[in-house]
Structures are given as C-alpha cells and as structure tokens.
Amino acid sequence: EFPARAEKYFKENVQVRKGVMIAVVSVLAMMGFSFAARCDLMARSMSEPSIIIRGRSGTGESIMLDDFREAYWWLRDNTPEDARVMAWWDYGYQINGVANRTTIADGNTWNHEHIALLGKCLTSPEEDGHKIVRHLADYVLLWTTRYAGMMGDDLAKSPHMARIAGSVYPDVNQEGFFIDEKGVPSESMRQSLLYRLHAYGSDQKVAPLKLYEEAYTSKYKMVRIWKVLDVAPRFEPPRVPGRSGE
Questions:
Q1: Secondary structure (DSSP) of 12-66
Q2: Which tens digits make up the pLDDT trace of 144-159?
Q3: pTM (predicted TM-score)
C-alpha cells in the first residue's frame, strides 16, 4: 500500500515534485562541478614533467622544485662519460635518459639477485658495503626528499631494500632495519651506508665518511651524490660474502 500512497501523494502535490526535482538536479550539478575541478587539478599535475615538482615556500609562495633535473644534469656535466652510478632501481631510467650515465639497475632489471645485491650494498655498514660498491660504481645517488617535506625517499624505502637483500643474503638484518614512529633509526639502519650517506651533515651523530666523498647536494637537498673512493679496476671481479648456499 505504501508505494500506492506515495505515488498518489506526489501526483497531488506539485510543489513537492518540484522540490525533489530541484534537489536532485542540485546534487548532480554539484557532483559535476566537483568532478570537473578534480579533472582540471589532475590535468595540471600530469601536464608537468615528473622530475620537476610544484611546491610551496615557507611564505606560501608557489615554487618549482627542480632538484632532480639539476642533479641529473650535474652528473651529465661533471662526471666522465663512462661513469657508473649506483642508485635504487626506481631512478635508473631517469639517470640513463637525463644524465646519460650508466646505472646499476633500472625498471627493466628482472634479476632478483641483482636487486638484492644492490640492496645489500646500501643496507650494509659503510666498510662492508664499500667492498662491493667499489667494483660496481663510481658514484652513489640518493633521493633525500624528506628534507623538502616529501617522506617517500630512499630512507623510507630502505626497510624494503633490506628485505629484498635478506631474501638472498642471510647476513642482512631484515627485521632490525627500521625507523620507529618517532623517526629514530634502529642501530642496524644507523650503521648502514644508506643512512650515513643520507643523514651526514643533518644528524650530528653521523661521523664523516671515510670511503665516500660528497660530490653534490641539490638546492633543496632532495638529491645527494657521493663519489666512491678507491674504485677497483674495471676487470677486477667482486667477492660477495654472505650469499645463500655459500
């Protein structure tokens, strides 16, 4: 009976029908305007180069964060053409394409052991990691974007690096490699090459590095590049201790 009474009510009350129609049209219009505004926002963000980011200064002024391109161009203009750059695989294509330099890994690196070795180099203590790094690279590049307010940098990815490395190399401390909720690194992370390269100059507890020399830090400190010291001759193969089954 209710549907019949409701139908009769709406037929007899023109103003109610008009009110419902206006409400429905208003809601649809608001959804349409919201969708259009969202599309415009997405179009603006996607139309800009991914390595150049729009941000806000401390005074609220709109600024362009060009650290990534500037760092890649620094590599291009200030390193030998045959220089090899160690960086997490995420940035491999950018280093290849923008800096025109060879990288250790990129998005097309399918070999899990290859990525695990890269993770082992970065999550090991400085001296242990250097024993491998000196055979593979001339420079190490890190994303340190947390200094510009973007937390998804190499330090944030480092527990994942340790897990990948530990899946092949049992001597890598997977579970003890983390930053707690207060931003304090575990002892294993604090001793790692990645943390020392990342935090030197900002964390007063980080002593000067002995086997790496700071080569470049971008304007907003979003990228740091370090020169590897005592690089091995190109023909000398590395020894990688700690691998499963060895």
A1: H-HHHHHHHHHHHHHHHHHHHHHHHHHHHHHHHHHHS-TTSEEEE-TTS-EEEE-
A2: 999 988 889 999 999 9
A3: 0.77
